[in-house]
């Protein structure tokens, strides 16, 4: 079956790309954009950057192995492999030629890496050789399941056998997990048990420890503790969720219930304390890592696109293993607010980090962005893991939508699609997430239970079929019956916009609230920062919906407050909120100490506003009347109108 | 005169170590600790780390120049030079031998660097060669002014002349400023104008640009704009304030009023938007840099010790140039809350970063800390700029206390000291900062105005002398007269504790307030996080003073609130504040969406608290009655009682 994850056991079985076809709609449109634009964009940039050329240079002729000529970071091979995986799922015609380029660089014994030939396996902390193999193997699995054996799958089998020979009886592992889940899937695809055993050993070795210490500490690559002894995800976020995904795969195939429940507990604790409202993971730029519990800054949120993708991969595995709807709930949150956010609407630029607050309207550097940051999306990055990860994930997205078990079919993600299962053919019709009406129309009849996920926010949901309507709680709405062509199941999910408040321990957004509607997180976007978002305070009143070009935007009531004009941003009395008025600029702001507003020193500057010309945020109150509507847009759509400021968490007035 | 900064012109002239002697008191005790403990601690660690050995290995014998044997980072030479400067100011007996070790490694043409011999000047972005010379020259200037010519000053002159020959007519500069201010000071100490001209050219070259672009962008080393065109400090904080210090020195010696006012404007804007309450600078760990305006997170505050020291050096230069008291005000804030915070009370461990909020009680890694972080102070760091910077700054601290001009003497920092100026001898007696009473006793008579700084927070200050008492505003309290032995000037600075609130644009501490008393910022420190600071809310009522072993501690009223037990830290209603009660744990917390607290999904977990054993912060309300006093300690004293949590900014109740 054409699915990236095919466990041999578990509560639910995935329905693959051959059973689920996405039709035009929120996700179907993005999958089409991926096939038509994003995949080609990625290939073009990797040709331009010379990362594909690295393979050509190695092809056959050892004399051409010149490290000076090699382009890109030590892990750039993995980017080509991720694109190959995307091409495989998409049935893209460019795959065979790109695969042949890769194949010619493989050494006789199966070793394949354009960076480390000669001094292979000399740096497990940063070398990324097994990481690159992991992505190569995932590409091969995709090819096996969509096409069958060919040159690419031969390369993959030789590489995987090389890994088993080289590492089966050592204590070594890679600084960046991914080979674990890749090897389990290759086992699932080929039945060769050595791949499962190799994956199991890689999972068990980590944390003994297996790697040297580094500046960030061993927690950076989850080598601080054996995976089954950890209590929370920590360190580099992508590494953490990739490792957890591999551990779930190993647990499922080996029947290791202890390992599975360890990962479930880590997921539960992480979701309770270390996840942004968008589902994004990662709070620190310095090591692309989870922060401490409740360290969730909106402005410096890292929330790497790849961490979001890894979280979706992990949640999908846990859903299949347990059938617990909470995993599908987090997957949906992350799909709509991270996965859909990274690519620009035109598919040619991407967010690497996905912060929830941007203070300065800025364009990223021209061309290849050397950093993960930049106020807007970039066409490519020096470390460009995210665009290719989007490409392979969108290309396989249909496989995440629905599952089956002995009782019937479960639809976890509501988007227009055609679903085939044991003769039953269903057509899902919906304007979700803009509309909460989901219709499942029976095209070819059959029997079995049809379950539709009801998200936790959908209070008052109803299901109608066979002439009856009943309320359904969050979880799954179940329709039983013998289905005839033309039968309809209608799910109604109330989409009332809602204000959401942070746990008081999330210090970074104290005194703020955010607006959500359905699965979407909303944000205020201010092009060129007009009005200045630093001075906006929202009133918590019911948001007003506006349908703009098929997109639901929301107005909330907001006041623009006076910035004051301190020379020192700390004062002996809190600012009174309230609207900006011309007088406000003239009245001296609170002094930095009681009664000294008129004295020299920083305090003395208090009544001397800086020249407006010098200001990064305006020093004069902006003439916007109080109680004006503030337009909120879906977070995933921000940043498509040029440099802008943005904030998800809005300070609340009064 | 024995002072690190001796401008040839300016509003005020420094009084050096030969004119100001610190006696037992807040700063005098620390200067003694430095002389007796810190300097030796630094030398021991640099011997143990092999950084001093790098010079021995080079000494004389080129055959021993083995890069493999070299220890430490590429800039480790500068650490030995900073220690030499500290030894020079302190008149430390270990200087000659250490200087001889350095001298033997110098090449014939004056080049001196243990890392780059062979491939000298091949990496200006990261090589730090001119940075190392800068610290070497500062050590030589200290030796010239405290001792006179010797082997060390000869080394310095040869190195400085080498720099002038090599760089006078190129467009090159160093990725890390410091050589600029060093060369100006060497000009001031020797009168050789080539050093001033070389410094001027280094200042003017930067930002043309003079360096290659890097991942962090050229703003990281202030090469994005010519220094006189910049509007705010940005990029790496230490680099920014070192460059600004050199620019002020060049401006003063060349009479460049435009350059001086450019730095003043940058300082003013930075202080208004980019400085932590402690005076600390730097908001980002990834590039040790300033953040955007108002990006001032207390938990991830970087506030590097060296940036605080650089800010004091810059403020001192601006004070001497302009006589504007606001520079002395910020210097004092930074001295008491950054400079005094870094070293442990026993002087054998140091903070590198000085965050304002620590959530997890933790000890740093054993031995040499590879990171700048760690919940407590570390004895040494892989990058160990801070301890040696403390050593040289404490050793010269007396030179920052007082100045003179034609009218008389200005005392900027109140600490027990004996001050000599043109025959006049003054003894300053005070328990400051614990007490606000400062007595200046005339030991040897003379004439002239005696000015005492009155900080901006000192509302209601009074000065008494000659039998009269009068109120004085912030700025300088001036006493005129012909002084006879036994005369007294008494300054009274009210030390009432005060609550301080952030500008509303400082998002990270919205809804919080901090307590200050006199020049000291206070914090709540909770050893082993008992009580849990994440659950404390303070009531804004007058703090109650307690004198504990000579230290003023403060009690504020606080309530301990219930953590609730969400599976998802975002909910459809704000938490009501109020005290923790046993019931609170049992009642289900707010659901993540209206009315779904009892449904599956993350929401479904809401009424299932995690086992307390798993909790990083307690899940059960802690049995502390409401309105209990919460003890606050001076921020500079936190972290001396083992692993603890700490917060300067306290959420306010109700």
From TrEMBL, chains A, B:
Residues 19-398 form the Non-reducing end beta-L-arabinofuranosidase-like GH127 catalytic domain. Residues 413-495 form the Non-reducing end beta-L-arabinofuranosidase-like GH127 middle domain. InterPro entries: 6-hairpin_glycosidase_sf (IPR008928), Beta-AFase-like (IPR049174), Beta-AFase-like_GH127_C (IPR049049), Beta-AFase-like_GH127_cat (IPR012878), Beta-AFase-like_GH127_middle (IPR049046). Residues 498-651 form the Non-reducing end beta-L-arabinofuranosidase-like GH127 C-terminal domain. One of its GO terms (biological process) is carbohydrate metabolic process. It comes from the Bacteria. Transmembrane segments: none annotated. Residues 566-636 are annotated as: Disordered. This is Glycoside hydrolase family 127 protein. It comes from Streptosporangium roseum (strain ATCC 12428 / DSM 43021 / JCM 3005 / KCTC 9067 / NCIMB 10171 / NRRL 2505 / NI 9100).
């Amino acid at each position: 079956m054409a699915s990236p994850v095919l466990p041999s056991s578990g509560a639910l079985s995935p329905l693959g790309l051959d059973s689920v076809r996405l039709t035009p709609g929120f996700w179907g449109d993005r999958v089409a954009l991926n096939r038509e634009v994003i995949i080609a964009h990625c290939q073009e940039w990797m040709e331009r950057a010379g990362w594909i050329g690295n393979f050509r240079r190695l092809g056959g002729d050892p004399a051409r192995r010149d490290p000076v000529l090699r382009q890109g970071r030590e892990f750039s091979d993995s980017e080509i492999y991720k694109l190959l995986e995307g091409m495989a799922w998409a049935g893209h015609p460019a795959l065979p030629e790109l695969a042949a380029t890769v194949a010619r660089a493989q050494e006789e014994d199966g070793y394949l890496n354009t960076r480390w030939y000669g001094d292979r396996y000399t740096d497990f902390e940063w070398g990324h050789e097994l990481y690159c193999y992991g992505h190569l193997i995932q590409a091969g699995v995709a090819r096996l399941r969509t096409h069958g054996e060919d040159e690419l799958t031969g390369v993959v089998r030789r590489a995987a056998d090389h890994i088993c020979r080289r590492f089966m009886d050592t204590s070594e592992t890679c600084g960046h997990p991914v080979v674990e889940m890749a090897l389990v899937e290759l086992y699932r695809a080929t039945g060769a048990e050595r791949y499962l055993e190799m994956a199991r050993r890689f999972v068990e070795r980590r944390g003994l420890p297996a790697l040297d210490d580094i500046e960030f500490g061993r927690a950076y690559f989850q080598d601080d503790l054996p995976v089954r002894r950890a209590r929370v995800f920590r360190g580099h976020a992508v590494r953490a969720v990739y490792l957890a995904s591999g551990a779930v795969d190993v647990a499922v195939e080996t029947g290791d219930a202890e390992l599975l429940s360890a990962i479930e507990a880590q997921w539960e604790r992480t979701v309770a304390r270390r996840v942004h409202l968008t589902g994004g993971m990662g709070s620190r730029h310095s090591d692309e890592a989870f922060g401490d519990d409740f360290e969730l800054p909106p402005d410096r949120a890292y929330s790497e696109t790849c961490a979001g993708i890894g979280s979706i991969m992990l949640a999908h595995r846990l859903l299949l293993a347990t059938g617990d709807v909470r995993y599908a709930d987090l997957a949906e949150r992350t799909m709509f607010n991270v996965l859909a956010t990274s690519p620009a609407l035109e598919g040619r630029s991407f967010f690497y980090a996905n912060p929830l607050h941007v203070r300065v309207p800025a364009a990223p550097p021209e061309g290849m962005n050397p950093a993960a940051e930049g106020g807007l999306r970039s066409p490519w990055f020096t470390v460009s893991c995210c665009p290719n990860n989007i490409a392979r994930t969108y290309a396989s997205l249909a496989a995440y939508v629905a599952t089956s078990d002995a009782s019937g079919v479960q639809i976890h993600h509501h988007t227009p699609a055609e679903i085939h299962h044991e003769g039953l053919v269903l057509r899902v019709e919906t304007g979700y997430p803009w509309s909460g009406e989901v219709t499942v129309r029976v095209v070819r009849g059959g029997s079995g239970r049809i379950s539709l996920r009801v998200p936790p926010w959908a209070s008052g949901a109803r299901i109608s079929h066979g002439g009856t309507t009943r309320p359904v709680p969050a979880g799954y709405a179940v329709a039983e019956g013998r289905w005839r062509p033309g039968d309809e199941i209608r799910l109604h999910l109330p989409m009332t916009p809602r204000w959401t408040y942070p746990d008081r321990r999330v210090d970074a957004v104290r005194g703020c609230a955010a607006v959500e509607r359905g699965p979407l997180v909303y944000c205020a976007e201010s092009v060129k920062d007009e009005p200045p978002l630093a001075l906006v305070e929202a009133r918590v009143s019911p948001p007003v919906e506006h349908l703009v070009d098929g997109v639901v935007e929301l107005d909330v009531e907001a006041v623009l407050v006076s910035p004051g004009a301190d020379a020192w941003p700390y004062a002996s009395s809190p600012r009174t909120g309230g609207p900006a008025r011309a007088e406000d600029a003239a009245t001296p702001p609170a002094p930095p100490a009681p009664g000294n507003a008129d004295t020299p020193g920083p305090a003395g500057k208090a009544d001397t506003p800086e020249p407006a010309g010098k200001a990064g945020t305006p020093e004069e109150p902006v003439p916007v009347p109080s109680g004006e509507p503030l337009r909120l847009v879906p977070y995933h759509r921000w940043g498509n109108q040029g440099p802008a400021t943005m904030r998800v968490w809005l300070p609340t007035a009064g």
